[in-house]
Protein backbone atom coordinates (compact mmCIF):
# COMPACT_ATOMS: atom_id res chain seq x y z
CA UNK A 1 0.00 0.00 0.00
CA UNK A 2 1.24 3.53 -0.74
CA UNK A 3 2.59 5.24 2.36
CA UNK A 4 0.21 8.21 2.27
CA UNK A 5 -2.78 5.87 1.97
CA UNK A 6 -1.59 3.90 5.01
CA UNK A 7 -1.03 7.14 6.95
CA UNK A 8 -4.50 8.44 6.08
CA UNK A 9 -6.04 5.11 7.07
CA UNK A 10 -4.29 5.27 10.46
CA UNK A 11 -5.35 8.89 10.97
CA UNK A 12 -8.95 8.04 10.10
CA UNK A 13 -8.93 5.13 12.55
CA UNK A 14 -7.83 7.57 15.28
CA UNK A 15 -10.35 10.28 14.33
CA UNK A 16 -13.52 8.38 13.50
CA UNK A 17 -15.94 6.96 16.06
CA UNK A 18 -15.44 3.22 16.31
CA UNK A 19 -18.80 2.33 14.73
CA UNK A 20 -18.15 4.58 11.72
CA UNK A 21 -14.68 3.15 11.21
CA UNK A 22 -16.12 -0.36 11.37
CA UNK A 23 -18.92 0.46 8.92
CA UNK A 24 -16.36 1.61 6.37
CA UNK A 25 -13.77 -1.08 7.03
CA UNK A 26 -15.92 -4.17 7.35
CA UNK A 27 -16.45 -6.96 4.90
CA UNK A 28 -19.20 -9.57 4.93
CA UNK A 29 -19.18 -13.04 6.49
CA UNK A 30 -15.76 -14.24 7.55
CA UNK A 31 -14.16 -11.47 5.45
CA UNK A 32 -12.43 -14.03 3.23
CA UNK A 33 -12.97 -11.94 0.08
CA UNK A 34 -12.03 -8.72 1.88
CA UNK A 35 -8.89 -10.37 3.22
CA UNK A 36 -7.73 -11.51 -0.22
CA UNK A 37 -8.46 -8.30 -2.08
CA UNK A 38 -5.16 -6.44 -1.93
CA UNK A 39 -2.93 -9.52 -1.96
CA UNK A 40 -4.63 -10.72 -5.16
CA UNK A 41 -3.08 -7.86 -7.16
CA UNK A 42 0.36 -8.96 -5.95
CA UNK A 43 -0.02 -12.39 -7.48
CA UNK A 44 1.05 -10.87 -10.80
CA UNK A 45 4.47 -9.81 -12.02
CA UNK A 46 5.53 -7.40 -14.76
CA UNK A 47 7.50 -8.18 -17.92
CA UNK A 48 8.84 -4.64 -18.54
CA UNK A 49 9.85 -3.42 -21.98
CA UNK A 50 13.17 -1.58 -22.49
CA UNK A 51 14.80 0.59 -25.13
CA UNK A 52 12.30 3.45 -25.35
CA UNK A 53 12.44 7.12 -24.39
CA UNK A 54 10.63 7.49 -21.06
CA UNK A 55 11.28 11.24 -20.61
CA UNK A 56 7.60 12.15 -20.70
CA UNK A 57 4.90 10.08 -19.02
CA UNK A 58 1.22 10.94 -19.29
CA UNK A 59 -1.23 9.07 -17.04
CA UNK A 60 -4.32 10.65 -18.60
CA UNK A 61 -7.12 8.67 -20.22
CA UNK A 62 -10.38 9.37 -22.01
CA UNK A 63 -13.52 7.67 -20.73
CA UNK A 64 -16.90 8.21 -22.39
CA UNK A 65 -15.56 11.43 -23.88
CA UNK A 66 -14.15 12.89 -20.66
CA UNK A 67 -10.41 13.36 -20.10
CA UNK A 68 -9.23 12.22 -16.67
CA UNK A 69 -5.74 12.96 -15.33
CA UNK A 70 -5.42 9.35 -14.21
CA UNK A 71 -7.25 6.07 -14.85
CA UNK A 72 -8.49 6.01 -11.26
CA UNK A 73 -12.03 6.97 -10.22
CA UNK A 74 -13.58 7.38 -6.77
CA UNK A 75 -15.91 4.40 -6.27
CA UNK A 76 -19.48 4.96 -5.05
CA UNK A 77 -19.52 4.70 -1.28
CA UNK A 78 -22.37 5.62 1.02
CA UNK A 79 -22.75 8.34 3.65
CA UNK A 80 -19.64 10.56 3.40
CA UNK A 81 -20.99 12.80 6.17
CA UNK A 82 -19.92 10.06 8.56
CA UNK A 83 -16.35 10.94 7.58
CA UNK A 84 -16.59 14.71 7.16
CA UNK A 85 -19.26 17.35 7.89
CA UNK A 86 -19.30 18.48 4.23
CA UNK A 87 -19.72 14.89 3.07
CA UNK A 88 -19.80 14.29 -0.68
CA UNK A 89 -19.41 18.02 -1.39
CA UNK A 90 -15.88 17.81 0.05
CA UNK A 91 -15.23 14.55 -1.76
CA UNK A 92 -16.14 15.86 -5.19
CA UNK A 93 -13.97 18.95 -4.69
CA UNK A 94 -11.01 16.76 -3.77
CA UNK A 95 -11.61 14.32 -6.60
CA UNK A 96 -11.87 17.06 -9.22
CA UNK A 97 -8.75 18.87 -8.00
CA UNK A 98 -6.92 15.62 -8.75
CA UNK A 99 -8.47 15.45 -12.23
CA UNK A 100 -10.46 12.33 -11.39
CA UNK A 101 -14.17 11.46 -11.44
CA UNK A 102 -16.57 10.70 -8.58
CA UNK A 103 -19.21 8.02 -8.86
CA UNK A 104 -21.78 9.46 -6.47
CA UNK A 105 -23.58 6.82 -4.41
CA UNK A 106 -27.37 6.54 -4.43
CA UNK A 107 -26.90 6.42 -0.67
CA UNK A 108 -25.08 9.75 -0.52
CA UNK A 109 -25.62 11.94 2.52
CA UNK A 110 -25.79 15.33 0.75
CA UNK A 111 -28.42 16.43 -1.74
CA UNK A 112 -27.47 15.40 -5.26
CA UNK A 113 -27.94 18.98 -6.47
CA UNK A 114 -25.55 20.33 -3.80
CA UNK A 115 -22.86 17.85 -4.80
CA UNK A 116 -23.39 18.69 -8.48
CA UNK A 117 -23.06 22.41 -7.70
CA UNK A 118 -19.60 21.80 -6.20
CA UNK A 119 -18.42 19.81 -9.22
CA UNK A 120 -15.69 21.20 -11.46
CA UNK A 121 -15.40 18.06 -13.57
CA UNK A 122 -17.32 14.97 -14.59
CA UNK A 123 -19.27 12.78 -12.18
CA UNK A 124 -21.45 9.72 -12.53
CA UNK A 125 -24.39 8.53 -10.46
CA UNK A 126 -24.60 5.04 -8.92
CA UNK A 127 -28.08 3.53 -8.89
CA UNK A 128 -29.78 1.26 -6.39
CA UNK A 129 -33.37 0.13 -6.82
CA UNK A 130 -35.68 0.47 -3.84
CA UNK A 131 -38.71 -1.40 -2.56
CA UNK A 132 -40.80 1.65 -3.57
CA UNK A 133 -39.64 1.85 -7.19
CA UNK A 134 -40.95 5.36 -7.84
CA UNK A 135 -38.43 6.79 -5.36
CA UNK A 136 -35.47 5.37 -7.26
CA UNK A 137 -36.83 6.57 -10.59
CA UNK A 138 -37.25 10.15 -9.32
CA UNK A 139 -33.80 10.19 -7.72
CA UNK A 140 -32.20 9.01 -10.97
CA UNK A 141 -34.10 11.68 -12.92
CA UNK A 142 -32.72 14.33 -10.56
CA UNK A 143 -29.17 13.01 -10.95
CA UNK A 144 -29.45 13.11 -14.75
CA UNK A 145 -30.93 16.63 -14.63
CA UNK A 146 -28.11 17.72 -12.29
CA UNK A 147 -25.49 16.65 -14.82
CA UNK A 148 -24.47 13.05 -14.14
CA UNK A 149 -22.41 11.86 -17.11
CA UNK A 150 -23.26 8.18 -16.69
CA UNK A 151 -25.35 5.86 -14.55
CA UNK A 152 -23.80 2.89 -12.75
CA UNK A 153 -26.31 0.21 -11.76
CA UNK A 154 -24.98 -1.86 -8.86
CA UNK A 155 -26.24 -5.39 -9.48
CA UNK A 156 -24.56 -7.36 -6.68
CA UNK A 157 -26.74 -6.08 -3.83
CA UNK A 158 -30.24 -7.58 -3.92
CA UNK A 159 -29.87 -7.53 -0.14
CA UNK A 160 -27.14 -5.94 1.94
CA UNK A 161 -25.10 -8.81 3.32
CA UNK A 162 -24.69 -9.33 7.06
CA UNK A 163 -21.49 -7.91 8.47
CA UNK A 164 -20.13 -9.33 11.66
CA UNK A 165 -18.38 -6.16 12.76
CA UNK A 166 -21.60 -4.19 12.35
CA UNK A 167 -24.85 -3.99 14.24
CA UNK A 168 -26.29 -1.21 12.07
CA UNK A 169 -25.23 1.67 9.84
CA UNK A 170 -24.39 4.59 12.17
CA UNK A 171 -26.04 7.25 9.99
CA UNK A 172 -28.62 9.78 11.18
CA UNK A 173 -32.13 9.56 9.77
CA UNK A 174 -31.72 13.00 8.16
CA UNK A 175 -28.53 12.01 6.35
CA UNK A 176 -30.02 8.68 5.31
CA UNK A 177 -33.18 10.24 3.89
CA UNK A 178 -31.76 13.46 2.47
CA UNK A 179 -32.41 12.48 -1.17
CA UNK A 180 -35.54 10.43 -0.54
CA UNK A 181 -37.71 12.52 1.73
CA UNK A 182 -39.34 14.60 -1.02
CA UNK A 183 -40.34 11.47 -2.97
CA UNK A 184 -41.94 9.42 -0.18
CA UNK A 185 -45.57 8.52 -0.98
CA UNK A 186 -47.98 9.37 1.82
CA UNK A 187 -48.24 6.82 4.58
CA UNK A 188 -45.22 4.67 3.74
CA UNK A 189 -42.48 3.82 6.21
CA UNK A 190 -39.45 5.71 4.81
CA UNK A 191 -36.97 3.02 5.75
CA UNK A 192 -39.01 0.13 4.39
CA UNK A 193 -39.71 2.05 1.19
CA UNK A 194 -36.00 2.62 0.61
CA UNK A 195 -34.64 -0.86 1.36
CA UNK A 196 -33.02 -2.63 -1.56
CA UNK A 197 -35.33 -4.05 -4.24
CA UNK A 198 -34.12 -7.64 -4.60
CA UNK A 199 -35.24 -7.70 -8.26
CA UNK A 200 -32.33 -5.86 -9.85
CA UNK A 201 -32.74 -7.46 -13.26
CA UNK A 202 -31.41 -6.97 -16.77
CA UNK A 203 -34.74 -5.28 -17.56
CA UNK A 204 -33.96 -2.69 -14.89
CA UNK A 205 -30.57 -2.14 -16.52
CA UNK A 206 -32.25 -1.73 -19.89
CA UNK A 207 -34.76 0.77 -18.49
CA UNK A 208 -31.93 3.04 -17.34
CA UNK A 209 -30.59 3.30 -20.89
CA UNK A 210 -33.64 5.44 -21.68
CA UNK A 211 -31.95 8.45 -20.06
CA UNK A 212 -29.63 8.86 -23.02
CA UNK A 213 -26.37 8.66 -21.07
CA UNK A 214 -24.07 5.62 -20.75
CA UNK A 215 -25.14 2.95 -18.27
CA UNK A 216 -22.53 0.73 -16.64
CA UNK A 217 -23.25 -2.53 -14.80
CA UNK A 218 -21.36 -2.80 -11.49
CA UNK A 219 -20.75 -6.02 -9.59
CA UNK A 220 -19.93 -8.22 -12.57
CA UNK A 221 -17.65 -11.20 -11.83
CA UNK A 222 -18.39 -13.51 -14.78
CA UNK A 223 -17.89 -13.29 -18.52
CA UNK A 224 -21.39 -14.58 -19.30
CA UNK A 225 -22.97 -11.93 -17.06
CA UNK A 226 -20.91 -9.23 -18.74
CA UNK A 227 -22.22 -10.30 -22.15
CA UNK A 228 -25.81 -10.40 -20.85
CA UNK A 229 -25.39 -6.85 -19.54
CA UNK A 230 -24.08 -5.71 -22.93
CA UNK A 231 -27.11 -7.31 -24.60
CA UNK A 232 -29.33 -5.34 -22.18
CA UNK A 233 -27.67 -2.11 -23.28
CA UNK A 234 -24.74 -1.60 -20.87
CA UNK A 235 -22.10 0.76 -22.23
CA UNK A 236 -19.51 -0.36 -19.69
CA UNK A 237 -18.77 -3.04 -17.11
CA UNK A 238 -17.46 -2.62 -13.58
CA UNK A 239 -15.84 -5.79 -12.29
CA UNK A 240 -16.44 -5.67 -8.55
CA UNK A 241 -17.15 -7.82 -5.51
CA UNK A 242 -18.32 -4.71 -3.63
CA UNK A 243 -15.06 -4.49 -1.69
CA UNK A 244 -15.76 -7.87 -0.06
CA UNK A 245 -19.04 -6.58 1.42
CA UNK A 246 -21.55 -8.76 -0.41
CA UNK A 247 -21.05 -12.49 -1.16
CA UNK A 248 -18.16 -13.63 1.01
CA UNK A 249 -15.77 -16.01 -0.78
CA UNK A 250 -16.55 -14.30 -4.09
CA UNK A 251 -13.49 -14.45 -6.36
CA UNK A 252 -10.86 -11.71 -6.25
CA UNK A 253 -11.60 -9.08 -8.86
CA UNK A 254 -8.18 -9.50 -10.48
CA UNK A 255 -9.19 -13.09 -11.36
CA UNK A 256 -12.62 -12.09 -12.61
CA UNK A 257 -11.15 -9.22 -14.64
CA UNK A 258 -9.27 -11.59 -16.93
CA UNK A 259 -12.45 -13.56 -17.69
CA UNK A 260 -14.59 -10.45 -18.22
CA UNK A 261 -12.02 -8.71 -20.45
CA UNK A 262 -11.83 -11.83 -22.63
CA UNK A 263 -15.63 -12.04 -22.91
CA UNK A 264 -16.17 -8.33 -23.61
CA UNK A 265 -13.38 -8.33 -26.17
CA UNK A 266 -13.00 -4.56 -26.41
CA UNK A 267 -16.68 -3.80 -27.14
CA UNK A 268 -17.03 -1.44 -24.15
CA UNK A 269 -14.77 -0.10 -21.38
CA UNK A 270 -14.13 -2.49 -18.50
CA UNK A 271 -13.43 -1.00 -15.06
CA UNK A 272 -12.44 -2.85 -11.90
CA UNK A 273 -12.30 -2.20 -8.16
CA UNK A 274 -11.43 -3.96 -4.92
CA UNK A 275 -8.26 -3.68 -2.88
CA UNK A 276 -6.43 -1.30 -5.22
CA UNK A 277 -3.98 0.61 -3.05
CA UNK A 278 -1.07 1.74 -5.24
CA UNK A 279 -0.09 2.79 -8.73
CA UNK A 280 1.39 -0.66 -9.30
CA UNK A 281 -2.00 -2.23 -8.49
CA UNK A 282 -3.47 0.13 -11.11
CA UNK A 283 -0.75 -0.86 -13.59
CA UNK A 284 -1.54 -4.53 -12.97
CA UNK A 285 -5.23 -3.94 -13.63
CA UNK A 286 -4.45 -2.03 -16.84
CA UNK A 287 -2.07 -4.80 -17.89
CA UNK A 288 -4.87 -7.34 -17.37
CA UNK A 289 -7.05 -5.31 -19.71
CA UNK A 290 -8.95 -2.83 -17.54
CA UNK A 291 -9.56 0.63 -18.99
CA UNK A 292 -9.67 2.22 -15.53
CA UNK A 293 -10.02 1.32 -11.85
CA UNK A 294 -11.98 2.62 -8.87
CA UNK A 295 -10.90 3.00 -5.27
CA UNK A 296 -13.37 2.89 -2.39
CA UNK A 297 -12.12 2.91 1.19
CA UNK A 298 -8.94 4.96 0.54
CA UNK A 299 -11.17 7.91 -0.46
CA UNK A 300 -13.16 7.57 2.78
CA UNK A 301 -10.01 7.43 4.92
CA UNK A 302 -8.57 10.43 3.06
CA UNK A 303 -11.78 12.40 3.52
CA UNK A 304 -11.84 11.64 7.24
CA UNK A 305 -8.15 12.44 7.66
CA UNK A 306 -7.99 15.73 5.76
CA UNK A 307 -11.20 16.54 3.89
CA UNK A 308 -11.03 17.54 0.24
CA UNK A 309 -7.26 18.12 0.46
CA UNK A 310 -6.78 14.59 1.73
CA UNK A 311 -8.75 13.15 -1.18
CA UNK A 312 -6.67 15.12 -3.67
CA UNK A 313 -3.43 14.05 -1.97
CA UNK A 314 -4.43 10.37 -2.08
CA UNK A 315 -5.30 10.44 -5.77
CA UNK A 316 -2.21 12.51 -6.65
CA UNK A 317 -0.02 9.95 -4.89
CA UNK A 318 -1.60 7.07 -6.82
CA UNK A 319 -1.10 9.02 -10.07
CA UNK A 320 2.59 9.63 -9.29
CA UNK A 321 3.11 5.99 -8.38
CA UNK A 322 1.42 4.91 -11.60
CA UNK A 323 3.60 7.31 -13.63
CA UNK A 324 6.74 5.82 -12.07
CA UNK A 325 5.47 2.30 -12.77
CA UNK A 326 4.61 3.13 -16.37
CA UNK A 327 8.09 4.55 -17.00
CA UNK A 328 9.83 1.51 -15.53
CA UNK A 329 7.50 -0.83 -17.42
CA UNK A 330 8.39 0.87 -20.73
CA UNK A 331 5.09 2.64 -21.40
CA UNK A 332 4.65 6.39 -21.83
CA UNK A 333 0.92 6.23 -21.10
CA UNK A 334 -1.88 3.76 -20.29
CA UNK A 335 -2.52 3.48 -24.05
CA UNK A 336 1.13 2.51 -24.64
CA UNK A 337 1.30 -0.64 -22.47
CA UNK A 338 3.36 -3.41 -24.06
CA UNK A 339 1.48 -6.62 -24.87
CA UNK A 340 2.02 -9.27 -22.22
CA UNK A 341 3.10 -6.78 -19.54
CA UNK A 342 1.49 -8.80 -16.73
CA UNK A 343 1.99 -12.46 -15.94
CA UNK A 344 0.65 -14.51 -13.01
CA UNK A 345 3.18 -15.64 -10.42
CA UNK A 346 3.45 -19.42 -10.85
CA UNK A 347 1.71 -21.07 -7.85
C1 LIG B 1 -18.34 2.03 3.28
C2 LIG B 1 -18.65 1.55 1.89
C3 LIG B 1 -19.84 1.91 1.31
C4 LIG B 1 -20.14 1.49 0.02
N1 LIG B 1 -21.27 1.94 -0.56
C5 LIG B 1 -21.54 1.58 -1.85
C6 LIG B 1 -22.68 2.12 -2.49
O1 LIG B 1 -23.42 2.91 -1.94
N2 LIG B 1 -22.90 1.72 -3.77
C7 LIG B 1 -22.07 0.84 -4.43
O2 LIG B 1 -22.31 0.50 -5.59
N3 LIG B 1 -20.97 0.35 -3.82
C8 LIG B 1 -20.68 0.71 -2.57
N4 LIG B 1 -19.54 0.26 -1.98
C9 LIG B 1 -18.60 -0.58 -2.76
C10 LIG B 1 -17.59 0.30 -3.53
O3 LIG B 1 -18.22 0.97 -4.59
C11 LIG B 1 -16.44 -0.51 -4.12
O4 LIG B 1 -16.96 -1.56 -4.91
C12 LIG B 1 -15.47 -1.08 -3.09
O5 LIG B 1 -15.36 -0.24 -1.97
C13 LIG B 1 -14.09 -1.23 -3.73
O6 LIG B 1 -13.21 -1.83 -2.85
P1 LIG B 1 -12.12 -1.01 -1.98
O7 LIG B 1 -12.87 -0.34 -0.90
O8 LIG B 1 -11.25 -2.12 -1.49
O9 LIG B 1 -11.39 -0.05 -2.88
C14 LIG B 1 -19.22 0.65 -0.70
C15 LIG B 1 -18.02 0.30 -0.09
C16 LIG B 1 -17.72 0.74 1.18
C17 LIG B 1 -16.41 0.36 1.78
C1 LIG C 1 -29.28 0.40 4.59
C2 LIG C 1 -28.08 1.07 4.09
C3 LIG C 1 -27.43 0.28 3.00
C4 LIG C 1 -26.26 1.03 2.48
C5 LIG C 1 -25.60 0.27 1.38
C6 LIG C 1 -24.37 0.94 0.97
C7 LIG C 1 -23.40 -0.08 0.48
O1 LIG C 1 -23.46 -0.46 -0.65
C8 LIG C 1 -22.42 -0.62 1.42
O2 LIG C 1 -21.62 -1.47 0.96
O3 LIG C 1 -22.38 -0.23 2.59
Automatic annotation (TrEMBL):
<feature type="domain" description="FMN hydroxy acid dehydrogenase">
    <location>
        <begin position="1"/>
        <end position="347"/>
    </location>
</feature>
<dbReference type="GO" id="GO:0016491">
    <property type="term" value="F:oxidoreductase activity"/>
</dbReference>
<dbReference type="InterPro" id="IPR012133">
    <property type="entry name" value="Alpha-hydoxy_acid_DH_FMN"/>
</dbReference>
<keyword id="KW-0560">Oxidoreductase</keyword>
<feature type="binding site">
    <location>
        <position position="242"/>
    </location>
    <ligand>
        <name>glyoxylate</name>
    </ligand>
</feature>
<dbReference type="Pfam" id="PF01070">
    <property type="entry name" value="FMN_dh"/>
</dbReference>
<feature type="binding site">
    <location>
        <position position="126"/>
    </location>
    <ligand>
        <name>FMN</name>
    </ligand>
</feature>
<feature type="binding site">
    <location>
        <begin position="76"/>
        <end position="78"/>
    </location>
    <ligand>
        <name>FMN</name>
    </ligand>
</feature>
<dbReference type="InterPro" id="IPR013785">
    <property type="entry name" value="Aldolase_TIM"/>
</dbReference>
<feature type="binding site">
    <location>
        <position position="23"/>
    </location>
    <ligand>
        <name>glyoxylate</name>
    </ligand>
</feature>
<dbReference type="InterPro" id="IPR008259">
    <property type="entry name" value="FMN_hydac_DH_AS"/>
</dbReference>
<dbReference type="GO" id="GO:0010181">
    <property type="term" value="F:FMN binding"/>
</dbReference>
<feature type="binding site">
    <location>
        <position position="128"/>
    </location>
    <ligand>
        <name>glyoxylate</name>
    </ligand>
</feature>
<comment type="similarity">
    <text>Belongs to the FMN-dependent alpha-hydroxy acid dehydrogenase family.</text>
</comment>
<feature type="binding site">
    <location>
        <position position="245"/>
    </location>
    <ligand>
        <name>glyoxylate</name>
    </ligand>
</feature>
<feature type="binding site">
    <location>
        <position position="105"/>
    </location>
    <ligand>
        <name>FMN</name>
    </ligand>
</feature>
<keyword id="KW-0288">FMN</keyword>
<dbReference type="InterPro" id="IPR037396">
    <property type="entry name" value="FMN_HAD"/>
</dbReference>
<feature type="binding site">
    <location>
        <begin position="273"/>
        <end position="277"/>
    </location>
    <ligand>
        <name>FMN</name>
    </ligand>
</feature>
<feature type="binding site">
    <location>
        <position position="154"/>
    </location>
    <ligand>
        <name>FMN</name>
    </ligand>
</feature>
<feature type="active site" description="Proton acceptor">
    <location>
        <position position="242"/>
    </location>
</feature>
<feature type="binding site">
    <location>
        <begin position="296"/>
        <end position="297"/>
    </location>
    <ligand>
        <name>FMN</name>
    </ligand>
</feature>
<protein>
    <submittedName>
        <fullName>Alpha-hydroxy-acid oxidizing enzyme</fullName>
    </submittedName>
</protein>
<feature type="binding site">
    <location>
        <position position="218"/>
    </location>
    <ligand>
        <name>FMN</name>
    </ligand>
</feature>
<dbReference type="InterPro" id="IPR000262">
    <property type="entry name" value="FMN-dep_DH"/>
</dbReference>
<feature type="binding site">
    <location>
        <position position="240"/>
    </location>
    <ligand>
        <name>FMN</name>
    </ligand>
</feature>
<keyword id="KW-0285">Flavoprotein</keyword>
Amino acid sequence: MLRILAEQQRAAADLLPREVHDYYATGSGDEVTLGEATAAWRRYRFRPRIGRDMTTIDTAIRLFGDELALPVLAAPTAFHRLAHPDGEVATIRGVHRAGSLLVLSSRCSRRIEDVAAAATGPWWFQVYLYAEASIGRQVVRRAVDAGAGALVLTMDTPYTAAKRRLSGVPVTDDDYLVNFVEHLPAGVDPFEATTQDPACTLDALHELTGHGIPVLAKGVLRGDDALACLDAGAAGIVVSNHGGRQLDRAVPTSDALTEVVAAVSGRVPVLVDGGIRSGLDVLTALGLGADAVLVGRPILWALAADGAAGVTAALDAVRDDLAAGLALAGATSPADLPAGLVTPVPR
